[in-house]
């Protein structure tokens, strides 16, 4: 099958927003080449791989989306460009914001993203390993998360994911119930199971994400009992849990806050990530006004994660 690749040249901070725009426009998947991710990948190189042989972004980021040949690109291209330009109104730096178009075949696509995906130690205890590579833990307490990024998701090493993983390591004590909002590849749920969480419900609005999460849960036996389904944030979810984690766009976190409060037990943790510098104060004030106490703020470059606690005594 022939595919059209639309590549948006943008900034590291706009990667997730641009990816969402492309998926919502009908892309079957996205591929991310982020210069900041690559710098971190080289620093954490456990296998001695020569990354100098791999083409990558020197600065900023390139988000590539793949559309099947049945999609009429000239019709959707100006709409995508307009939505990318509008991200400036949300305080995001879109970098060049330019869109390039090329044709690729299915086989070439698959080989392209595999070349720079290698084992990465993302936190003190957690290492992400591609499903096709052999890897043996170097320490007794090291936990391996196997992922197949497929055509829709990255390597799980973006700063927003790393921050969420670090936050989970800090709050999990074992036996908790948890909801993973916007699960994507399922990496946070898999990590939580490794860290001792009990029952997990993972939700994502995108059916492609649900399929990807199911695949990755199958690759990690520890996560075999995670319940995953399509859902819009926490709409219609009645159960209460001890922990909610959401690695999503800042603008989506705000309407999620009252839902999270209703779904958390008293004293439960709400871990949010995907927050850019310009939105930190907005999320902090929204959490405080929504009945949460800020326990800790983590950051990596321009990205932030917030650990908050539900403070009321509701059952």
From TrEMBL:
Q: Which domain of life is it from?
A: Bacteria
Q: Where is the signal peptide?
A: none
Q: Which residues bind S-adenosyl-L-methionine?
A: 161, 182, 204, 247
**InterPro entries annotated for this entry?**
Ribosomal_L11_MeTrfase_PrmA, Ribosomal_PrmA_MeTrfase, SAM-dependent_MTases_sf
Q: Key word S-adenosyl-L-methionine present in the record?
A: yes
Compartments reported by the entry: Cytoplasm
Q: What class of enzyme is it?
A: transferase
Q: Which GO molecular-function terms appear in the entry?
A: protein-lysine N-methyltransferase activity
GO-annotated cellular components:
cytoplasm; ribosome
Write the record's keywords in alphabetical order, separated by commas.
Answer: Cytoplasm, Methyltransferase, Ribonucleoprotein, Ribosomal protein, S-adenosyl-L-methionine, Transferase
What does it catalyze?
Answer: L-lysyl-[protein] + 3 S-adenosyl-L-methionine = N(6),N(6),N(6)-trimethyl-L-lysyl-[protein] + 3 S-adenosyl-L-homocysteine + 3 H(+)
For whether the record's keyword set contains Protein biosynthesis, the answer is: no
Gene Ontology terms: biological process: methylation
Enzyme Commission designation: 2.1.1.-
Database matches in SUPFAM superfamilies: S-adenosyl-L-methionine-dependent methyltransferases
Query: Record's family?
Result: Belongs to the methyltransferase superfamily. PrmA family.
According to its UniProt entry, the function of this protein is described as:
Methylates ribosomal protein L11.
Check the record and name the PANTHER family matching this protein. ELECTRON TRANSFER FLAVOPROTEIN BETA SUBUNIT LYSINE METHYLTRANSFERASE (PTHR43648)
Recorded protein name is Ribosomal protein L11 methyltransferase
Source organism per UniProt: Dellaglioa algida DSM 15638
- Taxonomic lineage per UniProt? Bacteria, Bacillati, Bacillota, Bacilli, Lactobacillales
């Amino acid at each position: 099958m022939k595919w059209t690749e639309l590549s948006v040249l943008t900034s590291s901070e706009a990667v997730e927003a641009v990816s969402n725009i492309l998926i919502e426009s009908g892309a079957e998947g996205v591929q991310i080449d982020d210069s900041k991710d690559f710098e971190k990948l080289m620093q954490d190189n456990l296998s001695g791989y020569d990354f100098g042989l791999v083409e990558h972004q020197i600065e900023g980021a390139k988000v590539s989306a793949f559309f099947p040949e049945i999609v009429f690109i000239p019709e959707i291209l100006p709409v995508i460009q307009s939505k990318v330009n509008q991200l400036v109104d949300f305080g995001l730096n879109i970098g060049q914001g330019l869109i390039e178009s090329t044709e690729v075949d299915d086989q070439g696509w698959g080989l392209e993203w595999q070349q720079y995906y290698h084992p990465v130690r993302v936190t003190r205890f957690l290492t992400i390993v591609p499903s096709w590579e052999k890897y043996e833990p170097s320490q007794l307490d090291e936990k391996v998360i196997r992922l197949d990024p497929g055509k829709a998701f990255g390597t799980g090493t973006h700063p927003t994911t790393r921050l969420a993983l670090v936050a989970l390591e800090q709050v999990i004590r074992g036996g908790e119930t948890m909801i993973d909002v916007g699960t994507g590849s399922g990496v946070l749920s898999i990590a939580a199971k490794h860290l001792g969480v009990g029952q997990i419900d993972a939700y994502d609005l995108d059916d492609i994400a649900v399929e990807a999460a199911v695949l990755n849960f199958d690759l990690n036996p520890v996560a075999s009992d995670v319940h995953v389904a399509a859902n819009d944030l926490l709409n219609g979810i009645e159960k209460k849990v001890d922990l909610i984690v959401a690695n999503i766009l800042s603008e989506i976190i705000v309407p999620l806050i009252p839902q999270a409060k209703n779904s958390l037990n008293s004293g439960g943790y709400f871990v949010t990530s995907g927050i850019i510098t310009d939105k930190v104060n907005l999320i902090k004030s929204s959490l405080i006004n929504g009945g949460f106490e800020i326990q800790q703020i983590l950051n990596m470059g321009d990205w932030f994660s917030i650990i908050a606690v539900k403070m009321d005594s509701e059952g």
